[in-house]
Amino acid sequence: MANSVCEVLLTEAPLDAPPQKQNVDAGAIVDFFGVVRKLEDGREIEGIEYQAHREMAEHQLRQIADQATEMFRLQLAIIHHRIGFVAVGEPSLFLRVASPHRGEAFRASQWIVDELKKKAPIWKRPRFTTRDDRRPGSTPPTRATMAAKAK
C-alpha cells in the first residue's frame, strides 16, 4: 500500500511494544509477543540463545513485512526480534500489524510468524536447566558411566 509503514529490528535489548501512533484508517491493530516458554523438547530450560546472520535476517524480515503489507492490505507491519540470551518468560519476538479490518490483521500476524520461522536466518539454542546431553526419553546415566566419562 502506498501509505504503509514497515519496520524491522534485530536487537539484544529487551523488547517492549513501541508507542502506538494514531492511524485513523486502521480498524484493527494486533500486537503479538512470542515469549520463551519453560519447556523445550519436554525438558525445562533457563532460556534460549538466539543467533542471526544480521544482514540476511533483516533483509528477510523486511521482505516478509513488505509481502504481508501487500497481501493483507496492512497500513503497518512492525517486526522486532531479539537476539542473544532470552530468559524464560521474556519475549523474543514482537509483532504489530494495523489493517482496516480485524480478519486481515489476525491472518497477517499468523502468516508473518510462520514465514519468519521458515525464512529468516535466526537460530535458537535452548539452555537447559540440567547440563546432561540426554534427549527426552533416553535413560539417565548411571554412576558408573558418569565416573568413566570423568576419567
Q: For this structure, what is the CATH homologous superfamily?
A: Molybdopterin biosynthesis MoaE subunit
Give the class from helix and strand content and strand pairing: alpha+beta
Uncertain residue segments: none
Q: Residue-averaged pLDDT, rounded?
A: 89
Q: Class in CATH?
A: Alpha Beta
* Largest sheet composition: 4 strands, mixed
The share of residues in extended strands comes to 35-45%
Assign an overall shape. elongated
First and last CA, distance: 65 Å
> What CATH architecture do you see?
Alpha-Beta Complex
Q: Would you count the extended β strands for me?
A: 8
Concise account of the structure shown:
The protein is α+β, with helices and mostly antiparallel strands.
Descriptive notes:
The protein is of the alpha+beta class and 151 residues long. It has one domain: Alpha-Beta Complex (Aldehyde Oxidoreductase, domain 3). The chain has helices spanning 54-72, 102-119, 143-150; strands at 5-11, 28-35, 39-40, 43-52, 76-82, 84-87, 91-99, 122-128. It has a 4-stranded mixed β-sheet, covered by helices on one side. Strands 3, 4, 6 and 8 form a 4-stranded antiparallel β-sheet that branches. α1 (54-72) packs antiparallel against α2 (102-119). It is elongated. The model has no long low-confidence stretch (mean pLDDT 89).
Helix-strand blueprint:
Elements: E1 5-11, E2 28-35, E3 39-40, E4 43-52, H1 54-72, E5 76-82, E6 84-87, E7 91-99, H2 102-119, E8 122-128, H3 143-150
Parallel strand pairs: 1-5
Antiparallel strand pairs: 2-7, 3-4, 4-6, 4-8, 5-7
